[in-house]
Amino acid sequence: MTPPGHSATPPINATAGSGGTAAVNGTSASTLGVAATSGSNSAMGVGASAAGGTNNHTGAAVHGNNVLNGQARAMANDHGTFSHSHTHCQAKPNQDPTCRTKTMSHVPGSRPTMSTTTSP
Length: 120
Known about the structure:
- The protein is mainly β.
- The protein has one domain.
- It contains no helices and 8 strands.
- It is elongated and about 65 Å long.
């Protein structure tokens, strides 16, 4: 029997992670994100890397106190040929965390190649 004022629902303990790499003609861009919740506590990490282009950009950050949001972006560009990856994670207390990664690579004159990975 559950005492008055107490919940019979156990806290959620869950993890999520997503990552991806886009690569074409020597350019590559990779991002990764992981998130975890344990009851009212949350943790998260994100990262990014880019290589092979004449113009590479990366960025990764986690923001928030109670609700954590993290993003990682990477892009490698070499005279119009480019690879791009973007990961977004969110962790809310007592809820399952989520992560999503979108990647795209493109060579001028052809259609871009795109993919999306979501967890859970």
